[in-house]
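Quick one:
INPUT:
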């Protein structure tokens, strides 16, 4: 089984950037979670934030809020910077 997390020290991909660097409404796929603290890795995975998951940035302040499937997750900005995203572009209109 491939472990979906990585550790600090790996170079970011050319297209990847921290979650907090997305524009509001922009979507992307989590490329890696780059946290040094194993507890943080477990907590983020329990929230559904792991490699291969699609997310959309909802807000940046006072907390970074991302939509994962049907759930909004609020993160401290320093935690959001541990999540590296491959951007996919702006989110489409909301479906009702």
């Amino acid at each position: 089984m491939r472990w979906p997390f990585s550790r600090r020290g790996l170079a970011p991909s050319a297209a990847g950037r921290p979650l907090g660097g997305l524009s509001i409404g922009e979507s992307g796929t989590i490329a890696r979670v780059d946290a040094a603290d194993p507890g943080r890795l477990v907590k983020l995975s329990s929230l559904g934030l792991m490699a291969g998951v699609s997310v959309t940035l909802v807000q940046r302040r006072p907390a970074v809020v991302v939509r994962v499937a049907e759930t909004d997750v609020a993160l401290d900005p320093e935690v959001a910077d541990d999540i590296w995203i491959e951007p996919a572009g702006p989110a489409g209109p909301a479906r009702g």
